[in-house]
Amino acid sequence: MHDLSRGRVVVTGGAGLIGSAIVWALNLRGVDDILVVDRLDTSEKWKNLVALRYRDYADADDFEARILRDPAAFAGTRTAFHMGACSSTTESDAGYLMRNNYEYSKNVAHWAVEQGIRLVYASSAATYGALETDLSDEADLDTLRPLNMYAYSKARFDLYARNNGLLDRITGLKYFNVFGPNENHKGEMRSIVNKAFHQIRETGTVRLFKSGRRDYRDGEQRRDFLYVKDAAAMTLHLAEHDAFGIYNLGSGTAHTWLDLVRPLFRAMGQPESIEFIEMPPALRDRYQYYTRAIVERLRSSGYDKSITPLDVAVDDYARKYLMRDCRLDPARAESLAPA
Fold first, then answer.
1. Residue 68 to residues 14, 104, 112, 113, Cα–Cα distance (Å)
2. What's the CATH number where 97 sits?
3. Radius of gyration of the chain (CA)
4. Running DSSP on this structure, what letter comes out for residue 95?
5. I want to staple 210 with a disulfide (CB 3.0 to 4.6 A). Which of 99, 129, 171, 276 is the partner?
6. What Cα–Cα distance (Å) separates residue 206 from each residue in 188, 262, 273?
7. What does the pLDDT read at residue 334?
8. Would 204 be classed as within a structural domain?
9. Pick the catalytic residue: 47, 57, 160, 186?
10. pLDDT at residue 94 tops 90
11. Residue from 104, 128, 150, 303 carrying the catalytic annotation
12. Model confidence over 103-126: pLDDT tens digits?
């Protein structure tokens, strides 16, 4: 078993949604010998770091340059969580995505393996493309057909890691629809919960896409939604165990958009008001109506914690964070699971 409390921990993308939740979860365990790596742009992503405890910060480009120039520069590091990436599914600069998500990941992976560092990296459920059934983390990676450039860049690294024997020594995580505190900086990539909260507060109404298929009524398109606190707990668990290869991280349950937004109205004390709008033409041919993570590999690794029910997760997010404009803070009486 890998001890996360021994040696320094590197978290790339450490100011982002999942990365900052990992730092928070480590802090709850008393771990603060952490190097946060990120690109602090003009957004307010930096606010995710204010309450967190970590030893040092490095710009992502500077970090990459140092591990390439002197692989032993970060001596004492025993664990690395590589969460840093451009996660925009609408990013059209293919060269930027391949440089940032593919080449950078290659450099981090080789550095970690050569230095004997336990590495867990973020892949994405978007690599499954248009698949709506059998979203198995044991699927043949060669059969997957991503639908956007972001997903393609992630899929290419999964293939590179497999083809070069790295997946026997590192762990890739296909996160499904993660939402929760510390996502305010993500703009249009924020979760529907975050967007819906602001819509309700400003207009009293949530807008959802109409269904374009007869077998799904409006609002009953289904997704596997995962609370970021659960995502962090699962990530730390797999880092601690000899769980190498690709793992799905999701709730294992497909919920409707209505299941997602109705608890938000209740938490905010607002009457339910939902408007269905036309789906943009650019999305119609790429829109998934059903996703559900198959999480048997996660469970077989020994992860036996219950996954937060969706309504409880939405209520926790709304009351403790959105309504208070708060971020994850290890100094508050919080835990990895909502009360």
1. 20, 11, 11, 13
2. 3.40.50.720
3. 19
4. H
5. 276
6. 15, 10, 6
7. 67
8. no
9. 186
10. no
11. 150
12. 999 999 999 999 999 999 999 999
How far is 320 from 333, CA to CA, in rounded Å?
11
Residue 203 CB partners (closer than 8 Å, separation 6+): none
- The phi and psi torsions of 8 (rounded to 5 degrees) equal -75, 150
According to DSSP, the residues that pair with 245 across neighbouring strands are 171
Domain count, the chain: 1
pTM of whole model > 0.90?
A: yes
The per-residue pLDDT for range 186-232, each reduced to its tens digit, is 988 899 999 999 999 999 999 999 998 999 999 999 999 999 999 99
Any catalytic annotation for residue 150?
yes
Whether 12 is in a domain gets the answer yes
- Alpha carbons within 13 A on the beta-carbon side of 146: 20
The pair of structure tokens assigned to 241 is 């165990």
What is the predicted pLDDT for the residue at 339?
A: 46
Question: For residue 197, which of 288, 329, 325 has the smallest C-alpha distance?
Answer: 325
Distance CA(134)–CA(85), nearest Å, equals: 26
Phi, psi of 90 (to 5 degrees): -105, 0
CA distances, 211 to each of 114, 272, 277, 325 (Å): 49, 19, 9, 32
Q: Is 186 a catalytic residue?
A: yes
Q: Which domain holds residue 27?
A: 8-177+226-252+291-307
